[in-house]
Design goal:
The complex is a heterodimer. Chain A is built from five helices and twelve strands. By secondary structure, chain A is an alpha/beta fold. Chain A has an eight-stranded mixed beta sheet, with helices on both faces. A two-stranded antiparallel sheet of chain A has the order 1-12. Chain A has a two-stranded antiparallel sheet with strand order 2-3. In chain A, helix 4 packs parallel to helix 5. The termini of chain A are close together. Chain B is about 30% helix and about 30% strand. Chain B is built from ten helices and 18 strands. In chain B, the strands form four sheets. Chain B has a six-stranded antiparallel barrel. In chain B, strand 7 and strand 8 form a beta hairpin. Classes of the chains: A alpha/beta, B alpha+beta.
């Protein structure tokens, strides 16, 4: 059996200083949770990474249930809509199922999930799925109290001004030099990071 | 150029679908295939002779009684003799090939395309009894009788048989059209109470369906599962597919997803799978090491599973539309990343990432010089407003669009997309810059 996969340790966030803070970008082959109140800017942050991925001809998947995401804003953040698969079932149980399928498929460099509630068991399955395929799974949620131990990274997002976000790291498997940073959304991405890597690699499994 | 007709004789076909199945197989070597129930299948080899030689064709179907000749009647009659070796009559040799056959084989020439009517059978039987009495014992003897004398003696049907005995029969037939649906069913000896036997049988049925579709170069755009329980309740599950699929493993994954979430009050006694919407598709020849093609194939499988379970309307890409009303400024589109050129990123206007399904009315209060917005559930203390951005249009509608949009930043750093409706000055929350 042949398996198509991309192996990298991190996925560029689309913001140079954030890449530096996270030692490369959002963890690839792992699950990251960005939590914060509605309107805090976490989706904008995720869309910056999606824009970077689609610019490098990578595919991005987005799963949402109930929340009405607005594609014109994706485009505004630089996401190539033709390379973004959007799955939006009405029921959350179906959204969780779709999220796992997409993460385990190995076809998507970045899998975003908007406002889904995951339990510890589901988080562990997703973490395993992304570890196997190398996909970066980014979960956008409202503030969560519980600790999901399977996570690779958990950041709380808040807005300090119109274009400045504050990221607080609640949990990270990777050692980081600091646990809080400010991100300017007008910042430019690192140049030529993702597109210089091979699009797909075939490994026997 | 003369026609070349292949006839295959299947005495006692094992099932009613044997002839259509064989006809379907023959479609891979000829576009014109015909069926003569209950035991004969024809194929016109003329259009594909440059691709497949007659020797090649007969080699492929050796296990049947086969004949190739210039016309339907000769090929059919020779195949019906049931010889173990294929009979290939060279072009122009039909009359010569039929000549030594006994006059009793005249009935084989009766009607190459449909079983003879009782009247025709009676006429043929009458001739077969009469001709030997006149010393005409072979088809060759019959063919040598002057054509002008046949009509007055043996009638119109006799004239036609005489023409066929001379190898001058027509080669025109109504082509076989593959059935529009494919169906495979299974009845359990022991009713199935668990998922595993159901999946095992489904996998088998899908394998057979794939083979049938392959024969007719068709793929599925929709499947229907029929399940019958021990208490005679029937369940029908329609599964639309996002694009034509033929391969059994891909179809099985979709079926497995659907079956695994079903619960039944009593065991299943039968299952049937129908390809209710087959479409013509040639399928893809994959290069062994082309990663992109494999990726596309896997994407097809994944989309098939997602669409099969969630429906076609919730799995898509999005495309932007020029509309005055912001909530209608996009529509779903097929996810075809390999075909897509890079789309232009557009829009200098700031748009929120989350938009509410319908705008929520807000009540505004002034508290010590600060605006406080009250929605049904929440209260927002606003630090600053940016705007307005006036959106106006659709004047032809009963309720034309006239809104002033603002970005409201709250004290705790949240950004809201709100608008003031110009006709009545009411304020609504429309989305979040999440």
């Amino acid at each position: 059996m042949l398996k198509t996969t991309e192996k990298r340790s991190s996925l560029p966030t689309g913001l140079a200083s954030l890449d530096l803070f996270l030692a490369g970008g959002w963890p690839a082959g792992g699950m990251t949770v960005l939590s914060g109140e509605k309107g805090c800017g976490k989706t904008e942050l995720a869309l910056r990474a999606a824009a970077e991925a689609t610019k490098a001809d990578r595919w991005v998947a987005l799963v949402s249930a109930g929340e009405t995401l607005f594609p014109p804003s994706f485009s505004e953040h630089g996401v190539d809509l033709a390379r973004l698969l959007w799955v939006r079932p009405k029921e959350e149980i179906h959204a969780r199922w779709a999220l796992e399928q997409l993460t385990r498929s190995g076809l998507f460099t970045l899998v975003l999930a908007s406002h889904l509630h995951l339990g510890e068991k589901e988080a562990r399955r997703l973490q395993l799925g992304s570890e196997q395929t190398g996909a970066a799974a980014l979960l956008l949620t409202e503030p969560i109290q519980t600790n999901l131990w399977a996570l690779t990274l958990h950041c709380e997002v808040a807005r300090s001004s119109d274009r400045i976000l504050v990221l607080k790291v609640r949990r990270s498997r990777k050692p980081l030099s600091r646990f809080q940073t400010e991100v300017n959304l007008d910042e430019k991405p690192n140049s030529g990071d993702l597109s210089s890597q091979p699009a797909v690699r075939i490994v026997a499994s | 150029m003369k026609n070349r007709i292949l006839a295959i004789y299947l005495p006692n076909p094992p099932s009613a679908s044997s002839l259509p199945d064989l006809a379907g197989t023959l479609l891979s070597i000829s576009p014109r295939v015909g069926i003569r129930p209950p035991d004969m299948v024809y194929a016109d080899l003329t259009p594909t002779l440059h691709l497949f030689s007659e020797e090649e064709v007969v080699k492929r179907i050796r296990r049947y009684a086969v004949a190739i000749a210039d016309d339907l009647a000769t090929a059919g009659a020779l195949a019906r003799l049931g010889r173990s070796e294929p009979t290939v009559i060279p072009a122009g040799g039909s009359e010569e090939a039929l000549a030594p056959l006994p006059i009793q084989t005249l009935s084989f020439l009766a009607d190459p395309l449909s079983p003879p009517t009782p009247k025709e059978s009676k006429a043929a039987d009458g001739l077969i009894r009469l001709l030997p009495l006149l010393g005409i014992r072979t088809l060759g003897n019959f063919a040598r009788i002057p054509a002008s004398t046949i009509g007055p003696r043996f009638g119109a049907f006799g004239v036609e048989l005489h023409r066929r005995a001379r190898g001058a029969a027509s080669s025109i037939f109504r082509p076989f059209e593959p059935s529009l649906t494919y169906r495979e069913a299974w009845e359990f000896d022991e009713p199935a109470s668990f998922l595993e036997p159901l999946l095992f049988v489904a996998k088998n049925l899908l394998g057979r369906l794939e083979a049938q579709m392959q024969k007719h170069l068709q793929s599925a755009l929709q499947m229907v599962l029929y399940l019958e329980t021990e208490d005679s309740k029937e369940t029908e599950i329609s599964i639309p597919l996002h694009r034509p699929l033929r391969k059994a493993p891909a179809l099985f994954e979709i079926v497995r997803e659907r079956l695994s979430v079903l619960t039944f009050e009593s065991p299943i006694v039968s299952i049937a799978i129908e390809i209710s919407l087959p479409v013509r598709s040639l399928g893809t020849q994959f290069h062994l090491f082309d990663a992109h093609e494999q990726q596309n194939e896997r994407l097809d499988e994944l989309l098939g599973r997602l669409v099969g379970k969630l429906g076609p309307t919730v799995v898509s890409a999005a495309t932007l539309r020029e509309r005055h009303r912001p909530e209608t400024a996009w529509e779903p589109a097929a996810f075809e990343p390999r075909k897509a050129a890079f789309s232009e990123t557009a829009g200098t206007l700031k748009r929120p990432t989350l938009v509410l399904p319908s705008p929520q009315p807000l009540r505004i209060e002034n508290q010590n010089g600060r605006a406080v917005l009250h929605s049904e559930r929440e209260r927002f203390i606003v630090r600053s407003f940016k705007g307005p951005e006036r959106l106006k249009g659709e004047w032809w509608n009963e309720k034309p669009l006239a809104r002033d949009y603002f970005v409201a930043e709250t004290e705790n750093g949240r950004q809201l997309w709100i608008f003031k409706s110009l006709p009545d000055q009411r304020v609504f929350l429309h989305g979040y810059f999440d």
